[in-house]
Amino acid sequence: MNSLYERLQLYGQDLLNSIHPIDLVINLLLVTLLSWLLAAIYVRYGRALSNRKRFAANFMPLALTTMLVMLIVKSSLTLSLGLVGALSIVRFRAAIKEPEELSYLFIVIGLGLAAGANQPFLALILFSFLSLAILANYWMRPAAYYQKEGAIYLELRTDLEEPLLIEESLKKILGPKLQLRRMDALGEGMGLELSFSLPACETAQLQAAQKALQALSANTSFLVVAQTDLPL
Question: pLDDT confidence of 35, banded at 50, 70, 90?
């Protein structure tokens, strides 16, 4: 029993040496509040096309976790080196679709690091400056600045075996920016599967292209898919 009590005292002393309990509570409350405000700013003023609410829900846990890691490793060089080694073998599978998402993640991590290093005023000052910069950038640039050019993904299946003829027929109607992305030969006498990309166009143009291809061969299927993030 005495051994357990002495060990608890040792743990408590290590915590006091790392950060005072009052400072710990202040930093926890501050990083929770700032990460929540940052999430609200991102949801309201972010320009990413993905689900901003779901992404912003990760800000608070990430900030608190970063603060915890900072509290653990800041007093020990051995733990710091061990953390670097551990992180070197970790792969993050979440895809970052927008550079804006990565920027906000770095802000959240910075808040957690500042709180873990017991620098609440620095975290508050930097958060205030970054928030004003984000809002100023939002108000100064029109929404059209962030809009992506729409794109179309066009997939064909036909018994024709002349891809150049098909491409030339489509370009006459849909324009020269049409690009062949994929071509699969289904076998002798079975035709082709073709995939094209092109900038968004009018429905009437797509209908005209469909009629032109079906005039060449009635056995032609025509699939159109909108792809906002398709690189052209």
Answer: very high
